[in-house]
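Explain this one:

_____
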Amino acid sequence: MASSTMTSSQYPRPPRPNIAFRELRGQRSPAEFAAAVRRAAREIGERVSCDARYVGRVEAGEIRCPNYAYERVFLHMFPGRTLTDLGFAPRSSVRGRGARTTEVAPPACVSTPVHATGETWGASEPYDTQDPYETYDNEESDVLRRAFMTGGGATVAAASLTPIGLTVPHPRLGSGGGTPVAAAAGRPVRRVGAGDVDALDEAVRRIRLLDDRHGADGLYRRAATPLRAAYALLDAGATRQTTADRLHSGAGELAISVGWLAHDSGRYDDARSHYAEALATARMTGDAALESHAFCNTAFLARDAGRPREALRAAQAAQRVGRPLGSARLMSLLALREAGGWAGLADRTGCEQALARAQALFDRGPSDADPEWMSFYGEAELEGLEAQCWSTLGDWPRAARHAHRAAELQDPHFSRNIALYTAELADDLARGGRPDEASAAGMRVLDLLGQVQSSRIQSMLAGTARVLLPHRRASGVSTFLERHASVPRSA
């Protein structure tokens, strides 16, 4: 076990549990309460990435004061109460103007370090109340940078050297050789602490949220910088074994997230490499949850790349590794990955059996054992993945029914998934001999392409356009084809 290089006097005082907030949760599980927070946020037009882990950190006292978005949501949920009534410290005691005096160190008066986690987003600008998602065009490049700029140490060395989108030399990633990031910055390498890992975890969350809303194409190149920073952290080492374990898990999850951005933007070889890196990290540390996730994404990639037998094997491997984790929702998703493999092999019976198993597992409901990365997996995604299976099997009417339901069920904030499901619907309708309806669905996708950048969705829509060409004289079809032809393609 790695020993700590810090003396006891250097450690922050342990946080005090937030008993008031815990009482407000009542009998609801942390995941159920987090869902209620997200619903309340939507009611007032806010966007927060609340999950069970965030709720747990609040109740443990690790979050002394929420950011402005969370504050508005909590006060909306509990009218008549103040932040103090909810068990939080006054904002002035946590985020005074002293926060502006340093880029990486929290104010001296803060007993619990302020890191780049969801509750302290923008802590270096405590009086800026703008939602970071309000102006995506101006801020998407800053989201990942800011998550790392408040972490310190090797993280800051990596993030401050290079703007998002440029490469940082790192021998482990083969980007042209050179010295490790921290050394290249001319700074002494220090051991990694919990704050660095918090920043890493937050970068993963932000990538996922931005992908949900805007697609992968605009994010993939920018995500290279935090990924290199993550491996710089691994090279630097951690102060404690628990921190080292979290660091490996976080780096693996980030590799998967970046791999998904590559996957969704059509860079299959890059995606395969990132997933393999995550899988190797998982096996080195015996992290079953990370290994299951890596196999899950590998199965999806193999299916999209036309390797159905590999997709089937990867999905089955994910189920073997993931079963002891105790999450029915995880096993449901993995059964859907298996169904995709069977569909690619034209095995209708195997596909139907896997789909039935996925539905039965899904119906058991969510639990605290569900991995954080599965927040996207709800009824809409279940319907969407089933639609893809029936489409692969050539059952266009059945595929169209499920795709239509997926688009209807999807949370309107997640534009990327709505575009994906609607593109699936358009293609199924076109191939099923319903060109007018397909064109109408295709027009809805085109309406979303101003917000969504996904080569995968553009490729699906291009396939639909080719199917509709023989029907181009129909008024609705010709309008769609003309508009589709005028849309610029992703680079």
About this structure: The chain has four domains: 1-88, 139-284, 287-374, 378-491. Confidence is low (pLDDT under 50) at residues 1-12, 95-189, 212-217. The domain at 287-374 is CATH 1.25.40 (Serine Threonine Protein Phosphatase 5, Tetratricopeptide repeat). The two ends are 47 Å apart (CA to CA).
